[in-house]
Each structure stands twice: as structure tokens, then as C-alpha cells.
Design the sequence.
């Protein structure tokens, strides 16, 4: 009998499979089970409209048999089957060749090994050649009297000829390769391995996947002895938890599912289970973990949700489904709108996927808003762990997402505890023009800043920015509900009355000579020295002029490679009502230099900046004492 040649494209894909160095060869089982499930679907749907076909859902099954001795795995279904022509056209050519097109487009790229192409997406029937050196397909089509067998040992072709088969459906027999030096193929003949693979990839296939399972049970007749029992068992659970109705699922079920699936020991903080119909139809089950995953802050961390197409896992981490600011969300999406044979390349441009991603983003936001409203304590706990991500989200992408996130962020406040921007805005006094904030590495330190104390004395609230990103996020927001953000350590923040302003202005004019001398002593360190009335009881403080604040300058200078170009313009502010003002006015040249340096350095310390020469500073203080 004459061997037929595969169509050119199929030959290429087949060749790729046979020579694959891809490590996840295990997916062959998923592919064959999906095909069996599709064929069963087809028969079942036909039976719904055609009364001559009897297909009770209870009879429809996918069966796996393993024969270790002969090194075969057999996957059979009682689905719609294939005629001889269909065996040829379906298995001799690739129907949808997304993977191959992708490979062709990139064929000049040496590094793009087949590794990338295979595995992430459906590669279909040919994947069986990754683990087999010979594949037989025996099939009997619905409505046909005869069966046929398709056999291939790889690239040199295949044969199709009549065969014996009583029932309608398809049986695929894989002749598993022998172990090589580098590769263990025996594993696919082990019952536990097969069971695991079914659970991992095909748990939610709607038909029972059965296999005869050996187990050791105590022998009733001989105490202490064991005998081998063989029972047919269903390996898959068939109904995915996310397809069930919310009100049928207990909280423990969600938690157990989460912990088992995402390898966490702790129950999640929040479970989001949604069914969406409309532009896109999909089920989503998402979790916000209590703690950040171990590798969350490492470069190896990959965000993403699992992607299922009708209960079949097609991608483990679909990054396009989650914005970066929600990278901590774990979970999955199941949509019938996506085909199994979809490549990652195609997926990125998939319109349907974009709609799903948008809906998911919206859903997570609304669930977080709900938690913030209804369970403040829990929200703050969540925020302590992942809040920084939301603030990065405001800053990132040129502020593209800021509107959706601004009501989800919290700040510690001078009033104690966390405050939302909305709450701050609502309790602002009529006389207050700006939303005040101050920066530092710890709340306690910020609270003690002279400028913060002065503003608090006026009865105003100050937001405490303790994360590097805070001020960048506020700058990106620019305003909230018509009120601008103002850094109290910035020079332009001034709450005094007109009369007070006038008095300070006069004081500065009268002391011009003194201030100029002080500026000269400090040189380029500061852009100006001024008297102020904003410091309460404190002698001196630093403020920043212009766009770059003290905190931003600090953050930027800590960035890898430094950022010398960006420097805050510092102003040394001296409290005009403090005794020190008089001391300065009466000091001789020598004393003035020391006073100035001491005041400047202590102002740096208060602002959380380091000082260049601590020894000199300490010596000067001792001398004065
Ligand atoms: P895909 O399933 O993505 O179309 P495959 O290469 O896996 O690609 O399969 C090619 C075709 O062969 C399928 O579309 C289907 O028509 C047919 N086929 C494969 N397996 C079976 C089966 N068990 N029963 C019936 N038809 C099958």
C-alpha cells in the first residue's frame, strides 16, 4: 500500500514536533483530550436536533488506556468520528496554522526556537509526535458503516486503510518513544503521571475522562497482605468552580481552590467572581492575595491570569489581561469566544481579549471601591501590602489611568490614620486653598517637620508621603476636585495673613545685608536665605523652590546611575520670631559663619538630608556650648 505525503506545511510542523526540544511535551495529552471533547460536543449537538441519533450525555466519555508493556497510550472517544476522507484532510493538513505562520514570519530569528511556538497555544494533533514514534488513529464516522485506520511514523508520510471498529468515534493510539539519554518518556506510561496531567490541563472538560486505576488494598483473607485492585475512575472534576453559581459556592471552597491552584498557604483577602455577558462573554475568578508572592519584587515575577477557552487551559499567565498596577491579582478567565488554536502573537491583537481585559480592570476597581466602603479595616490591610502599586499606576503611562485609581489610594494623615483624597477634600476648611502634603521616610518624622507643625497649628490637615512614588503620583494628579496639591516644604506655601506677610517682607528687606552674607557663607548649597514666619517654634528649616521638591531630589539622587542633573533649589528659612534672629543680627563675622553653618546643617537633618561634614558640625556645636 502506497504511503501518502503530508502537505508541505504539515510536514514542517510535524518535523518541528518530532525534533522539539520543548520541555512541556506533556501538553500532547491536553491536545488529544480537547480534540476528543470537541468531537463529542459535535455529536451531542447533532443529537439535540436529530432524533435518529441517540446520544445521552451519560454515555459520552473519553477513555484513556495505558499499556506499559507495549508502550502505548490510547485515547478513545465516542464522538462524531471521521471518514477516510476526513482522516486524510484533517490529519494530513493543518486546518488553522497560526503557529506555523508565526514561525514562518520569524524564521530569520535564530533564537526563536520552536520552544516559543509550541506549548503556549494549541498545536493540535501533531503534538502527539513529541512523545510518540508512531501514531494510529482508528475512526468510524457518524452515519458510516465502515471504519478506517490512519497510521504514521512521522515525516515520511501516512497511510489510510479500512479497519474494524464497532462503535462510532475515534481511538488514538500513541506508541511512546523509548527513553533517551536526556529525556524520560517512560513517565507518560505511569498512571499517576497521566492522572496528574488530566487534573492539570483538562480537569474541567465537560465529559468524564476515565481510566482504569490500580490501587493496593488490604487483602481480606490474608492479614497484612495487600492485593491489587483495578477500578475505572473518573479523573476530571468536570464542573469548574467558576462556572458554578456564586450562591452555590461556600467561602471555604473559594479559599481552598485558591490555595491549591496558586500555591498559597493563606486565604486570599478578596475573592472576585464574575460572569459577564455582552460584548464579550466570559467567567472570571480572581483573588487578591493576603501577602505578596515570594518573587513579587524580583525580575522573574510574571503577572497574568490563566486563560481558558471553554474549560481548557490555553495559557498559564496571560499578561495582557492585567494592567501593571493590578499585577498582584491571581486568577483566571474562561471564555468561549477564544479559540484554542490561538498563538500568543495573535492573542495580543485579539479584539475580544482587549474587551475582556477592559472589563476585568473595571471589575477589580469596583470591587476594591466596595471593600473600601464596606470594610475599611480590610482595605487598609490590603493597602499596606499593595497600595504602592496603585500609586505607581497613577504615575505610570503619563497618568493615563489616574482617574480610575485616584479614589482607591490612601495617605497617612496628620489627623491620624489613613485618609482618602475624597475624605480630605470633604473636611477641608472653607479658607483652605490647597491640599497640603509633606514628605519623609516615616510618619513620625514628617509630623515633626516645622512646616507641618505650623500648618497643623492653623487647623489644617497634612497628607504624609512616605513612599518614594507618593509625590510623583500627586504631581501627576495635579489636583483633586478643583484643589491643587501643595508641598508644605515648598517655598510658595504661605498661610500667613496679609499683615504678617508684610511684616516678614519688611524684615527681609531690612536684613538684606545679613542675609546676603549668610548666602555667601553657604555658597551654592542654597539659592537663598530668608526670614519666615511659617516655622512655629522652630529656628530654621529648608524649603525648595521651583518644580523639584526635596523629596523628589532625594528619590532621584538614589536612582541607579545617580541623577545629578536634577537638584532641588534649597532655601534656608529662618524663623523671624525666634531668638536666633536677634543673635544673628548681633553676631560678629566669625560667629555668623558658625551660626549659619549650624542652622543650615540642622535644617538638612530635619529635612532628612545627610550632611557633608558631620564632624565639623558636631565640633561647632560643642564650641558654641
Ligand atoms: P484542531 O483541533 O485545532 O482543529 P488538530 O490538528 O488537533 O487541530 O485536529 C485537526 C482536525 O482533526 C480537527 O479539527 C478535527 O476535525 C479532527 N479531529 C482530530 N481529533 C479528532 C477526534 N478525536 N475525533 C474527531 N475528529 C478529530
Sequence:
Amino acid at each position: 500500500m502506497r504511503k501518502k505525503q503530508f502537505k508541505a506545511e504539515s510536514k514542517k510542523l510535524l518535523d518541528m514536533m518530532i525534533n522539539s526540544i520543548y520541555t512541556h511535551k506533556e501538553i500532547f495529552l491536553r491536545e488529544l483530550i480537547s480534540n476528543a471533547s470537541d468531537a463529542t460536543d459535535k455529536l451531542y449537538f447533532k443529537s439535540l436536533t436529530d432524533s435518529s441519533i441517540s446520544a445521552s450525555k451519560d454515555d459520552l466519555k473519553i477513555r484513556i488506556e495505558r499499556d506499559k508493556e507495549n508502550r502505548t497510550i490510547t485515547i478513545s472517544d465516542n464522538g462524531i468520528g471521521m471518514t477516510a476522507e476526513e482522516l486524510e484532510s484533517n490529519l494530513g493538513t493543518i486546518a488553522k496554522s497560526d503557529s506555523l505562520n508565526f514561525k514562518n514570519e520569524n524564521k530569520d530569528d535564530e533564537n526563536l526556537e520552536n520552544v516559543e511556538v509550541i506549548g503556549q497555544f494549541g498545536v493540535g494533533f501533531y503534538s502527539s509526535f513529541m512523545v510518540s514514534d508512531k501514531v494510529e488513529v482508528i475512526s468510524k464516522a457518524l452515519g458510516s458503516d465502515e471504519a478506517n485506520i490512519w497510521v504514521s511514523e512521522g515525516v515520511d508520510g501516512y497511510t489510510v486503510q479500512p479497519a474494524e471498529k464497532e462503535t462510532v468515534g475515534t481511538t488514538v493510539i500513541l506508541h511512546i518513544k523509548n527513553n533517551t539519554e536526556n529525556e524520560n518518556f517512560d513517565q507518560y506510561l505511569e498512571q499517576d503521571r497521566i492522572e496528574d496531567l488530566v487534573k492539570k490541563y483538562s480537569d474541567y472538560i465537560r465529559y468524564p475522562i476515565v481510566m482504569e486505576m490500580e490501587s493496593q488494598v488490604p487483602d481480606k483473607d490474608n492479614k497484612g497482605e495487600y492485593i491489587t485492585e483495578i477500578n475505572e475512575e473518573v479523573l476530571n472534576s468536570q464542573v469548574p468552580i467558576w462556572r458554578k453559581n456564586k450562591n452555590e459556592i461556600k467561602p471555604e471552597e473559594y479559599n481552598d481552590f485558591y490555595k491549591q491552584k496558586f500555591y498559597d498557604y493563606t486565604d486570599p483577602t478578596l475573592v472576585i467572581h464574575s460572569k459577564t455577558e455582552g460584548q464579550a462573554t466570559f467567567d472570571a475568578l480572581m483573588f487578591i492575595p493576603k501577602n505578596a508572592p515570594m518573587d513579587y519584587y524580583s525580575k522573574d515575577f510574571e503577572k497574568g491570569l490563566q486563560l481558558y477557552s471553554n474549560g481548557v487551559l490555553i495559557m498559564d499567565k496571560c499578561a495582557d489581561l492585567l494592567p501593571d498596577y493590578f499585577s498582584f491579582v491571581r486568577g483566571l478567565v474562561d471564555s468561549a469566544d477564544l479559540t484554542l488554536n490561538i498563538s500568543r502573537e495573535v492573542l495580543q491583537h485579539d479584539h475580544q481579549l482587549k474587551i475582556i481585559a477592559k472589563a476585568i480592570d473595571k471589575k477589580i476597581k469596583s470591587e476594591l471601591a466596595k471593600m473600601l466602603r464596606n470594610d475599611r479595616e480590610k482595605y487598609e490591610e490590603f493597602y499596606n501590602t499593595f497600595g504602592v502599586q496603585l500609586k505607581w499606576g497613577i504615575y505610570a503611562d503619563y497618568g493615563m489611568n489616574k482617574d480610575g485609581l485616584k479614589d482607591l489610594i490612601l495617605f497617612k494623615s496628620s489627623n491620624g490614620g489613613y485618609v482618602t483624597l475624597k475624605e480630605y477634600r470633604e473636611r477641608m476648611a472653607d479658607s483652605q486653598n490647597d491640599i497640603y502634603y509633606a514628605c519623609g521616610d516615616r510618619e513620625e518624622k514628617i509630623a515633626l517637620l516645622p512646616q507641618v507643625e505650623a500648618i497643623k497649628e492653623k487647623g489644617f490637615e497634612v497628607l504624609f508621603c512616605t513612599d518614594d512614588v507618593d509625590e510623583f503620583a500627586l504631581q501627576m494628579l495635579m489636583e483633586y476636585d478643583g484643589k491643587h496639591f501643595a508641598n508644605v516644604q515648598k517655598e510658595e506655601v504661605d498661610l500667613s495673613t496679609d499683615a504678617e506677610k508684610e511684616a516678614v517682607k519688611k524684615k527681609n528687606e531690612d536684613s538684606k545685608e545679613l542675609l546676603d552674607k549668610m548666602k555667601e557663607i553657604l555658597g551654592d548649597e542654597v539659592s537663598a536665605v530668608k526670614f519666615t514666619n511659617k516655622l512655629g517654634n522652630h529656628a530654621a528649616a529648608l524649603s525648595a523652590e521651583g518644580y523639584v521638591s526635596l523629596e523628589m531630589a532625594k528619590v532621584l539622587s538614589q536612582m541607579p546611575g545617580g541623577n545629578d542633573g536634577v537638584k532641588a533649589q534649597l532655601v534656608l528659612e529662618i524663623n523671624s520670631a525666634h531668638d536666633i534672629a536677634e543673635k544673628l543680627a548681633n553676631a560678629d563675622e566669625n560667629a555668623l559663619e558658625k551660626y549659619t553653618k549650624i542652622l543650615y546643617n540642622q535644617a538638612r537633618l530635619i529635612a532628612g538630608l545627610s550632611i557633608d561634614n558631620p564632624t565639623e558640625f558636631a565640633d561647632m556645636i560643642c564650641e558654641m556650648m
